[in-house]
Amino acid sequence: MSDKKGSTAGKFALGAVLGAAVGAVVGLLTAPKSGKETREDIKNKATEVKGKASDAADSFREEAGKRGAEFKHKADRKIGDTKKFLKREKGHVEEFVEDELDDDDED
Question: Which residues of the chain have pLDDT under 50?
Answer without folding.
Answer: 1-2
